[in-house]
Amino acid sequence: MPTGTKSLRTELKHHWKFLRTYIQKPHSVGAVAPSSRAIAIAISEPFRRSPRPARVLEVGAGTGAITRHLGTILTDRDELDICELQSEFADILERDVLSTASFRRALCDGRVRLIRRAVQQIEGEGVYDFVISGLPMSAFQLSDVEQIYTVIRRLLKPGGVFSYFEYTWLRRTSRLLAMGRTRERIRAVNAYLTRNIRDHEFARRSIIGNIPPAHIRHLRFDRNSNGNGR
Question: Which sign, positive or negative, has the C-alpha torsion 212, 27, 17, 116?
Fold first, then answer.
């Protein structure tokens, strides 16, 4: 089978797996399709432009749309930990992503690890230069979001960067359409995320061509970063 045809079939399988998992676990996945290449490039930009070596944690890797791009910009001194709780997605990462040539040497050297557990269970303090997240924060309970942010702040080195994406207008639309306790949950999560954006975001990029359009946000927690680099 030609390489291009095999790659397309694999990608379509990943999209179907993503959609099926969303239908089964909408509050764990939070999206109906994997991230686009444009999101992968934009969300990893601070890492790509940083001095090396660097240590990176990707959380909520899904079927590996961002992971694949990270593999193309890793140097032979960088380290990457990939955290994915959903077993279906972790299996895809291991079988279809980490088995590619981009990761072969890093895996042999022990510089790439697949972590099959929640980010809250990752131990350490000041471990990573970059944390890149595909977690659907708006789909979680406020207590879970607060705990995830606390863990990410603990895991980042001083000056470390937390990067994530969210779909444009999703939080606002969900807040308007939701009812009862769901609306209260979304409002509380939205207020928490907005406060962190206000206090710590230093750069933002909009990906209009993504379906749906998305914002890429880059935060630093060790200082107030409001207004810089937008």
Answer: positive
pLDDT band of 94, cuts 50, 70, 90: very high
Rounded distance, CA 70 to CA 127, Å? 18
CB 151 within 8 A of CB 117: no
**Cα 39 from Cα 163, distance rounded (Å):** 11
Q: Residue 13: which pLDDT band, with cuts at 50, 70 and 90?
A: low
Residue 48 CA to residue 105 CA, distance in Å, equals 19
pLDDT class of 196 with cuts at 50, 70, 90: very high
Domain map of the chain by residue range?
34-219
Alpha-carbon gap, residue 144 to 150, rounded angstroms = 10
Please tell me the predicted confidence (pLDDT) of residue 213.
86
| Ramachandran region, residue 132 (left: φ > 0; alpha: ψ -120 to 50; beta: rest) | beta
Which pLDDT value is given to residue 30?
Answer: 42
* Distance between CA atoms of residues 60 and 137, nearest Å: 10
**pTM assigned to the model:** 0.82
Confidence at residue 114, expressed as pLDDT on a 0 to 100 scale: 98
Range list of H helices, the chain: 3-24, 26-29, 37-43, 45-48, 65-73, 87-92, 101-108, 142-155, 170-177, 180-200
Q: Which CATH number fits domain 34-219: 1.10.10.10, 3.40.50.150, 1.10.1060.10, 3.40.50.300?
A: 3.40.50.150
